[in-house]
């Protein structure tokens, strides 16, 4: 059996940076991450072995340092941490930071700030805090009834779709005279999806690795599942021998929150079931 690995998979730049920053801080002392650093239970357990524990709220922080995860936090939460004299290790992804700064800039210049995104997503909640009264929207019909001469700015949650952003931008240009548009979408998710789709067309079965609560991993499973038989697993322990029976090519992909060690363990397990030639 041949094992094929997707060209783009696993940790994106921002998540890898956050993981590296956290690991650089764990020198025996207890530290906290505000919320799970990534949506991957295996990685959360791994961090616990290094004395890095999840704190769900600022009140839960037990250590002297707290890591801010890649999708950032609201301004007020940052202030609360500072007031409690807790040192901040800011692992907010620089791409997310840029969106927060743009939100603040446009707000200060008197624009109505529109954010394309999911209302309840922590990244969006963080961005909103930089532009009070900003409007989170997804579709043209969500655009509020403002006078045509209003100054409006459009930015986006980093993981939104380019197509949706373009449609909204067009709709805003038609409705308002003064529109500032900055595409703040990061292409890490799209690259992983395209690579997974390409690979799914070349193999007989796909294995998608990542947390069951990771939305980008679930999306990869959905995309591959439309092309070929696909299984979503969190760890190598969930692999079933019968999935690989009579299979000649298996494809592997993983969500942006899946650590390399999880991917490697799955590959090793498949190798132990068969003796494949590994190609990338
Ligand atoms: S998906 Fe993009 S914006 Fe989000 S953490 Fe990863 S690199 Fe940063």
Automatic annotation (TrEMBL):
(2E)-4-hydroxy-3-methylbut-2-enyl diphosphate binds at residues 39, 71, 121, 158, 214-216, 257. One of its GO terms (molecular function) is 4-hydroxy-3-methylbut-2-enyl diphosphate reductase activity. Coiled coil: none annotated. The keyword S-adenosyl-L-methionine does not apply. Pathway: Isoprenoid biosynthesis; dimethylallyl diphosphate biosynthesis; dimethylallyl diphosphate from (2E)-4-hydroxy-3-methylbutenyl diphosphate: step 1/1; Isoprenoid biosynthesis; isopentenyl diphosphate biosynthesis via DXP pathway; isopentenyl diphosphate from 1-deoxy-D-xylulose 5-phosphate: step 6/6. Dimethylallyl diphosphate binds at residues 39, 71, 121, 214-216, 257. [4Fe-4S] cluster binds at residues 12, 93, 186. This is 4-hydroxy-3-methylbut-2-enyl diphosphate reductase. The gene is ispH.
